[in-house]
Amino acid sequence: MKIRIKFTRHGAVKFLGHLDLMRYFQKAIRRADIDIKYSEGFSPHQIMSFAAPIGVGIESCGEYFDIEVNSTTSTSEALKALNETMAEGITVTEYKQLPDKTPKAMAQVAAATYELYYKNKKDNPFTLQKLTESVDKEIMNVKEILVTKETKKSVREIDLKPFIYDFHLLERNGPAFSMMLSAGSIENIKPQLVLQYLFDRLGITLDLNQIQIERQDVFFKSQKGKYLPLGAAGDCIE
Questions:
Q1: Which residues of 43-76 are buried (b: 16+ CB within 10 A; e: fewer)?
Q2: What pLDDT, on a 0 to 100 scale, did the predictor assign at position 155?
Q3: How many Å apart are CA 8 and CA 13, to the nearest integer?
Q4: For 226-231, what is the mean pLDDT?
Q5: Residue 71's pLDDT is what?
Q6: Measured between alpha carbons, how far is 15 from 9 in angstroms, rounded to an integer?
Q7: Hey, what's the torsion of the CAs at 14, 15, 16, 18, to 10 degrees?
Q8: Region for 76 from its dihedrals, namely left if φ exceeds 0, alpha if ψ lies in -120 to 50, beta otherwise
Q9: Under a CB-based contact definition with an 8 Å cutoff, are residues 61 and 217 in contact?
């Protein structure tokens, strides 16, 4: 039986690296008495896979991982048991059963949404009007956005424009940015890259230490071409 779990993390736990977070949940699963399956062989481990891990320092309202279980209680009972084991800053919000043939969460990832805002309002150099004009001129109303993307294996020039699915403004500690970007195996776009491009075009120095990034959710693309949260692939357990 496949289970998809959604959780949030805010505060000090945003500084946990992915491996530390994975170990944390392995222990939490045991403490919550979730009947998780283990792999076979000389060194059995919990069958668990995370979707699109985020970088250190990024907060999140939507992170997911899949597990396989031998048996399970209801969604409400599992949520209660898990949240009783959670450290401050982490909350489990969904526990859903997946159809047997559902791909792993990481394989389904197609997009992610983010909010980026200044931690201190006084550091924000923008007014809402100026920000609206800048986003329209430099992001929304252009045909291409050429940037240099660096990874551990390569440095290459790409056109960001096809991978920015939405970019709009919101009010969060002053004018802020909301983005929906390509994620997953095809092209994984970091919101910092888009924001850096915008600031470069405006001739403003971007200090990422002043910016809080919060991922809102992670999406898969349905057969009808709609982007749906990963949790929509499963159903609550009565």
A1: eeebebebbbebeeebbbbbbbbbbbbeebbebe
A2: 84
A3: 10
A4: 95
A5: 95
A6: 10
A7: 80
A8: alpha
A9: yes
